[in-house]
Design a protein that fits this description.
By secondary structure, the chain is an alpha+beta fold. It starts with a strand and ends with a helix. Helix content is about 50%, strand content about 25%. α2 packs antiparallel against α3. It contains 3 helices and 5 strands. The protein has 2 domains: about 90 residues, no CATH class; about 55 residues. It is elongated, with a radius of gyration of 24 Å.
């Protein structure tokens, strides 16, 4: 299927430049105020995709710009999620042990009484950071 393209002429060099079309907002309609959150509104956004299909997406926001930014954020998250799901679990395990090995290599360069403390604090810090980020990402991007 041929993507939509737009031709543009560069006035200085008389060259034709082909630009691929991205998603465009066709229509936005205000639906109602949110029942659960004050000052939030629900919009229904109609989007023209690259393949000329249209889709309607409900979006909440404090204003129209906030609702549109949430739609863009959700599409970026879905794109990132598709890419990270293709990475095998073994790669994540290798990365985890790589961090542990790097921390261990750093801690053995220190004095003996600081090595165990540094390694333990580093392990706890890495574990808490990964846990916090994954929990935040899961809560923020779950379907409602």
């Amino acid at each position: 299927m041929i993507k939509n393209t737009q031709l543009g002429v560069n006035a200085k060099q008389n060259e034709v430049k082909i630009v691929n079309m991205k998603r465009k907002v066709l229509n936005v309609s205000y639906r109602k105020d949110s029942d659960t959150f004050n000052d939030w509104m629900k919009y229904e956004i109609e989007i023209l995709n690259e393949d000329n299909s249209t889709e309607k997406i409900p979006a909440y926001g404090k204003d129209l710009q906030d609702a549109l930014s949430r739609v863009v954020h959700d599409s970026k998250v879905q794109k990132l999620e598709r890419k990270t799901k293709r990475i095998p679990s073994m790669v994540w395990v290798i990365l985890w042990f790589g961090y542990i090995t790097a921390l261990w290599q750093y801690s053995i360069t220190l004095e003996k009484h600081w090595a165990a403390i540094t390694f333990s604090i580093g392990m706890v810090a890495i574990t808490l950071t990964v846990g916090y980020i994954s929990n935040w990402f899961r809560k923020r991007n779950k379907d409602k």
